[in-house]
Amino acid sequence: MTINLNPILIRVRPLNEEVKYFIVAFCILFADLKIFEIKVSELLMFLFFVLYINKYFNKISTLLYFFSLFLIFSLLITSLLKIGPLSSIYSFLKMPYIISLSRYVEYLSCIGFSLFSYHILFKKKYIYIYKILDYTLLFAIIFIIEFVLIYLGFYSISESLFYYGTYRLRGFYVEGGPLGLCYAFIMSLVYLFGGKYKLLKIFILFIVIILSQSKAGILYILLFAIFILYEKVKIPKFYKPIAIIIFTFTFMYIVSIVVQGYLYEIANVSTNLQYKQNDTNYVMGRIAGLFIIPNIVKSNYLFGIGMGNYPLVRNFPAYRGIFPEVELWDSSGLGGFIDLLVDGGLFFGCIFIYVIKNIYIRSAIQHKKYLLLAFALPFALGLQLYFLYPWFIIGIFLNGKSD
Question: What is the model's pTM?
Fold first, then answer.
């Protein structure tokens, strides 16, 4: 007696594809989910990088060469600057030299995510992207449902993995800002590849951004919308400079409203520091970074201070200026492009732009102008360069790339 397994195989094959789509959605949405100090999505994509880099080496070789050269220079610079450990309380992964190696592994995970995205979309229509986006939409609905249940008092909770503070969503992020930025990124992809019920999907995603109270998410949407209007509306060449000026001043006015709290703190930093010496939200992060980073760049503008070394050098008297020393692990929070300038200087900043531009130019996919903007905006609005989800765009680019 023989058993025909073909029907079983037919049923299993789509499931395997769906699992792949879910993995990509998981890496997009839960990029900051950690077990101890290791991000789960980065571990998955690093394993994929190890398994498939030989197969897809030609697709991604320029990025791999770039980050490898960046690592070599970072180790040399760490030695030249005589960078020591911040504190004995931090793990082995945050020691000098090791932090650069750790950051390098994170960048390899980003490459792995791009390759995995390329792998599952290879020779498929781009409509398959909407299947990935639908999984992120499912989690958006779950977040909203939990928020509504808490708000209506069906159960009382002060904090959860999805929610915290005064009615603010955060997903699996530390706070609401990064969640809103992530969903703004997803919204831009839904606009391009949303499939059926696109407007309904955009509306649901917008609710998540509002409930997360994310300034970065709102700014992302505004910038993306302005670019769409500029591209879609047919403006005579004579009036284009005027349109650009109007769009620029409108955007600057909106930004000033959104970030007015930061502008006040910056304008009064000398006075406020007298009362906020022990306020970690003030002496660390963006406000401190706006004063410390110019000093670092001024002294290390060509090759930077090395990959991941900002927390280790921000206490140097020549850099921190009027700000006090801190023992906590600090991040500037000013975004991947600023971090790249600090870590790698003008040299590696320019090379990175060239590498991405080369991938962009050789891609023949539709909507590539919008996709390039979707890749760049998160890094311009506060996201670190080693976060996974914008690198999904590189995977899409690679599918339209000629060797």
Answer: 0.88
* pLDDT of 15 higher than 60: no
219: tokens are 């700014």
Cα 373 to the center of its chain, rounded Å: 13
Structure tokens at 260: 């007015």
The answer to whether the CB of 398 falls within 8 A of the CB of 377 is no
| Three-state secondary structure readout of 137-161 | HHHHHHHHHHHHHHHCCCCCCCCCC
Pairing of strands 38-39, 34-35: antiparallel
> Which segments of 109-198 are extended strands (E)?
163-164, 168-169
The residues that bridge with 363 in the sheet, in sequence order, are: 401
- The Cα–Cα gap between 175 and 159 comes to 11
Select from 105, 114, 106 the least CA-distant residue to 60.
114
Q: Determine the Cα–Cα distance for residues 381 and 220; give it in Å rounded to an integer.
A: 8
259-281 CB burial, b ≥16 within 10 A, e <16: eeeeeeeeeebeebbeebeeeee
CA distance 23 to 120: 10
CA-nearest of 149, 220, 143, 156 to 189 is 220
Q: What is the mean pLDDT of residues 340-367?
A: 93
Give CA–CA dist 136/25, Å, rounded. Answer: 6
pLDDT at 131 over 70: yes
Q: Residue 367 is encoded by which pair of tokens?
A: 């909507």
The Cβ of residue 250 has, within 10 Å, a number of other Cβ atoms equal to 12
The three-state secondary structure class of 288 is helix
Angstrom CA distances, 286 to 114, 138, 216, stand at 29, 32, 13
Two structure tokens written together for 338:
């600023």
DSSP 222: H
175-202 pLDDT, tens per residue? 888 999 999 999 999 999 877 888 999 9
At 397, list the tokens: 């680019």
- For residue 163, give the 3-state DSSP assignment: strand
Q: Regarding predicted confidence, which is higher, 172 or 76?
A: 76
Which DSSP helix (H) or strand (E) runs through 379? helix 368-380
Q: Could you report the per-residue pLDDT of 283-342, keeping only the tens digit for each?
A: 888 888 888 999 999 999 999 999 999 988 988 889 988 888 888 788 877 878 999 999
Q: What is the 3-state secondary structure (H, E, C) of 318-364?
A: HHHCCCCCCCCCCCCCCCHHHHHHHHHHHHHHHHHHHHHHHHHHCEC
**Other beta carbons less than 10 A from residue 239's beta carbon:** 10
